[in-house]
């Protein structure tokens, strides 16, 4: 027997999102005691503590709370879809769709995908969230978004991944580099030169593993979490970099020139694709967005590479 309501879950999820009872009450336009009572009711029904209360510092989720938060968001999303179905809103192909995306390629692929989604499904408004690889998975678990575009790097067992397109590994070089005109280069060709390393969580370990597999110790001159900073440092001659994401132009933001040359080393194949929480059910809007990605993303990246 179900002894809780969607209202209980909505108040709980709001408190988890903002980390406080006060903020949740403001978000839900109810009193603070109403939020506190909903949380207490859920803790009593499920027999677990959902939050750790910090005096004057708000709330933080317990492990049990994190699991319930993700499940609650999933259930609330589908309750909203059911409401839309009942109101006849184009079979749920209308409304806001939150989508996560890996931050390095988000500005390269998302604007075009959003345009295509708008053409095919004008009633869907996609709300993008640009994050690092680790945060993309965390966002799926927390219910911040239903699906995400990311790479299949260090994916946890609770994340389902559908590969859409293979992404090669490139060396980014200054335009006047001695190897800039090569059709491909090896890490051995670059050994001893300064490396500009993309230092995002999981990305950093992935790129360093490529050097490890080639038995090469990189000379890390700069490390940054910004994709555009990597490109800018490379273009200005501070070193080379190794990347999967490739912009369709050969200028850094300051106008300096760089080139990308395929790496010849054998390495683990990496894909760009669609990630979901394995326990979640896709909504119709999510399915529509995923289909646009399947149909258009490979050609989009191919055209950019040939530009």
Q: What fraction of the residues are assigned to beta strands by DSSP? A: 15-25%
Order of strands across the widest beta sheet?
4-3-5-12-6
Q: Structural class, judged by helices and strands?
A: alpha/beta
Query: Radius of gyration, Cα only, in angstroms?
Result: 23 Å
Q: How many distinct folded domains?
A: 3
Main pleated sheet: 5 strands, mixed
State the fourth-level CATH superfamily of the largest domain: Periplasmic binding protein-like II
Helix content class: 40-55%
Cα-to-Cα separation, first versus last residue: 60 Å
The name CATH uses for the topology of the largest domain is D-Maltodextrin-Binding Protein, domain 2
Low-confidence stretches: none
Order of helices and strands: HHHEEHEHEHEEEHEHEHEEEH
Number of strands: 12
Q: What is the CATH top level name of the largest domain?
A: Alpha Beta
Q: What best-fitting shape do the alpha-carbon axes yield? A: elongated
Q: Give the rounded overall mean pLDDT.
A: 91
Shape-level CATH architecture of the largest domain: 3-Layer(aba) Sandwich
Q: Helix segment count?
A: 10
Describe the structure.
The chain is α/β, with parallel strands linked by helices. It folds into three domains: 6-67, Arc Repressor Mutant, subunit A, CATH 1.10.10; 89-166 and 271-306, Periplasmic binding protein-like II (D-Maltodextrin-Binding Protein, domain 2), CATH 3.40.190; 170-266, Periplasmic binding protein-like II (D-Maltodextrin-Binding Protein, domain 2, 3-Layer(aba) Sandwich), CATH 3.40.190.10. The protein has ten helices and twelve strands. The chain has helices at 6-18, 21-28, 32-46, 63-86, 106-120, 133-142, 187-190, 203-213, 227-235, 284-306; strands at 51-54, 58-61, 95-102, 124-131, 147-151, 159-167, 170-174, 194-198, 219-224, 241-243, 258-262, 270-277. The strands form four sheets. It has a five-stranded mixed β-sheet with strand order 4-3-5-12-6. The chain has a three-stranded antiparallel β-sheet with strand order 10-7-11. Helix 5 (106-120) links the parallel strand 3 and strand 4 (124-131). Helix 1 (6-18) packs across helix 2 (21-28), helix 1 (6-18) packs across helix 3 and helix 1 (6-18) packs across helix 4 (63-86). The chain is elongated. The mean pLDDT is 91.
């Amino acid at each position: 027997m179900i002894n809780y309501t969607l209202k209980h879950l909505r108040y709980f999820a709001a408190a988890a999102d903002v980390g406080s009872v006060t903020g949740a009450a403001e978000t839900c336009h109810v009193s603070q005691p109403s939020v506190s009572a909903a949380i207490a009711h859920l803790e009593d029904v499920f027999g677990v503590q959902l939050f750790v209360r910090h005096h004057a510092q708000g709330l933080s989720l317990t492990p049990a709370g994190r699991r319930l938060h993700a499940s609650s968001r999933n259930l609330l999303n589908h309750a909203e879809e059911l409401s839309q179905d009942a109101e006849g809103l184009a079979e749920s192909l209308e409304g806001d769709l939150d989508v996560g995306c890996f931050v390095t390629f988000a500005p390269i692929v998302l604007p075009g995908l959003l345009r295509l989604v708008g053409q095919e499904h004008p009633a869907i408004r996609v709300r993008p969230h640009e994050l690092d690889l680790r945060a993309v998975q965390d966002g799926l678990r927390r219910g911040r978004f239903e699906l995400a575009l990311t790479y299949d790097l260090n994916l946890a067992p609770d994340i389902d991944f559908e590969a859409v397109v293979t992404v090669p590994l490139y060396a980014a070089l200054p335009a006047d580099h001695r190897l800039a005109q090569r059709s491909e280069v090896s890490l051995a060709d670059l050994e001893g030169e300064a490396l500009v390393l993309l230092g995002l969580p999981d990305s950093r370990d992935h790129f360093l593993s490529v050097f490890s597999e080639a038995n090469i110790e990189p000379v890390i001159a700069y490390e940054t979490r910004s994709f555009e900073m990597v490109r800018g440092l490379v273009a200005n001659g501070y070193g080379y970099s190794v990347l999967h994401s490739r912009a369709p132009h050969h200028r850094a933001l300051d106008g300096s020139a760089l080139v990308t040359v395929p790496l010849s080393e054998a390495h683990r194949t990496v894909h760009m694709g669609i990630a979901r929480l394995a326990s979640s059910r896709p909504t119709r809007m999510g399915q529509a967005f995923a289909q646009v990605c399947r149909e258009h993303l490979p050609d989009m990246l191919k055209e950019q590479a040939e530009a």
